[in-house]
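I am writing to request your help with a piece of structural work I have in hand. What I wish to show you is a protein chain and, alongside it, a tokenised description of its three-dimensional fold. Could you please explain, in whatever detail you think fit, how the structure tokens follow from the sequence? You will find the record immediately after this paragraph.
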Amino acid sequence: MTNPRFDFDLFVIGGGSGGVRAARMAAAAGVRVGLAECSALGGTCVNVGCIPKKLYSFAAGYATAFKEAGGYGWKLPQVREALDWDHLKAGRAKEITRLNGIYQDLLVRSGVVLLPGHACFEGAHVVVVDGRRYTAERVLVATGGTPRVPGIAGHQHAVISDAMFDLDSLPDRLVVVGGGYIACEFASIFSGLGSHVTLVHRRQHLLADFDEDAAHFLQRELAASGVDIRTDTEVTALERRCEGGRLLATLSDGSVLDAATVLYAIGRIPRTEGLGLESAGVKLDAAGAIVVDAHYCSSAPSIYAVGDVSSRKQLTPVATAEAMVVVDRLYGDGARRVNYEFIPTAVFTHPQLASCGYGEREARARFGAGNIVVYSSDFKALRHSMSGRNERTFVKLLVNRVDDRVVGLHMVGDEAGEIVQGFAVAMNAGATKAHFDATIGVHPSVAEEFVTLRTPKAP
């Protein structure tokens, strides 16, 4: 399996979820593996993405829970203004440091050679890490993505999502620019933490990549929770009043917003710059992503890529799944595959949005407009019968009438991510509407709504 002509059998560039998984699994198979990472291990997800964002989401949820508690008889003081921002930041930093250590320990114990530093190619089999050259029979690029930076006047005054976890203080007024899941999550989180949040989006509706009904429902809930949503407009210029002072964001509709912080969350781009990919003969697409075939191999036969640097979906579990496929193909029996059709995903707003499978528009395009049967329900969950809040929940099923298979499942409500994860297993196993109908629900629960939907929506 090993090739003495090279320093490594597999060289991994990037210590995020995909890179770490590939390195560990390959090393466990007896492969000589080197891994280069110029930052903290764990990549975006662990350091400035999924994990810290979810921790802050938990923190934001307590403010709402404190308010709801009154409806159930708890006599609590007003606590929204009592958030200790520095305590929250320190707790998050401690947890991330712990996870960084776990990643390092897993790699070292599996036999991976860690090479801290920036890596770039010098040909298809040579990688240079901070001036030192290494040869490798195969190289896996798993460098992930990075936030897109705006090109407007005064853009240097804005921050990207990476910086939001360590702001000097909790902004009293925050402007979030963008309409994707990252923008919505930060808008919701900081609104819950106590900031006055204005969300600015150039399109009419948020979350264009999700089912329209679910996205529109969440947009209404975010607005009802206090997020000031400005659609069909965009920021044209940013200006700082004085050194260290307030920001003024001028919008295309002529209005001006005052803010302590302006966050740009307008998408992410593949992290390919500075890798020297041209020297290795690796082709990029128009978005700057590495072009790969069905087996994640690039135009250079010795170079592979997984995750956000090339992936069909920018999700941490997708990167790890793709990494496992690559390792299995190179050093196993090659049987492993990734099923992209029914990947569950969630937007950790308050309330959450979660989905699995196709949105309604996609489903009609994929299976035929007349073949999709829609079931949905919009209701006030039992929890809010006494909470004093008017938050509503939305569930939706899309069924292909040809074979009765459930091809789309969507939810907006408390713990939507946890609920949809379970249904994703059934959908990947080929569950039909008949299976849903025959399943006894857990009562009383929100999740049981999915197995009690009986009346289809009129065409």
Notes: The chain has ten helices and 22 strands. The CA atoms of residues 285 and 449 lie 43 Å apart. The first strand starts at residue 8 and ends at 13. The mean pLDDT is 96.
